[in-house]
Amino acid sequence: MPIFAQQSRAALRQTYLDAWRRRCSGAVLSALDAQIATVIGEHPEYHAWLENDAALLAEEFDPAEGRGNPFLHLGMHLAIREQIATDRPGGIQAVHAALAQRHGSALEAEHRMMEALGETLWEAQRAGLAPDEQAYLRRLQRLR
């Protein structure tokens, strides 16, 4: 079972905050902390906000109010990077490379890929099934 699946929402959020705090203080980072801190580092719009950690642990992010959830956003980056590293679903590395070339950066390619990932996860959750990797890959290939 993935490490994040075992954590409460507050504990998961604390993992992000702790990784960022350790990076900012120059502490030695675990591999997971380094991944999290790298993604946060690529999103300067979140830096000052992450310093208000006590409030963030319980904060609600309602998309209906135009409030995107930064923890979800950062987590999707981590998920996509893991998929690319393992090339699962098969072909995702090529899709990512093509999108990165087309849009100018690996980070921007990931941003383009997030909607397909979110839609795939939403469908799986709604149906009570595992995510359909091939449907996800087809969505990603349409982005090229």
Characterization of the model:
The chain is built from eight helices and no strands. By secondary structure, it is mainly alpha-helical. The protein has two domains: 1-59, no CATH class; 67-144, no CATH class. The longest helix has 22 residues, at 106-127.
Count of all domains = 2
- The global form is globular
Distinct helical segment count? 8
Largest sheet: none
The strand count comes to 0
Strand content: under 5%
Mean pLDDT: 92
Low-confidence segments? none
Question: In which range does the helix fraction lie?
Answer: 55-70%
Over the alpha carbons, how many angstroms does the gyration radius reach?
16 Å
- Order of SSEs: HHHHHHHH
Structure class: mainly alpha
What distance separates the N and C termini? 32 Å
Please describe the structure with a list of short key phrases separated by commas or semicolons.
144 residues, globular, mainly alpha
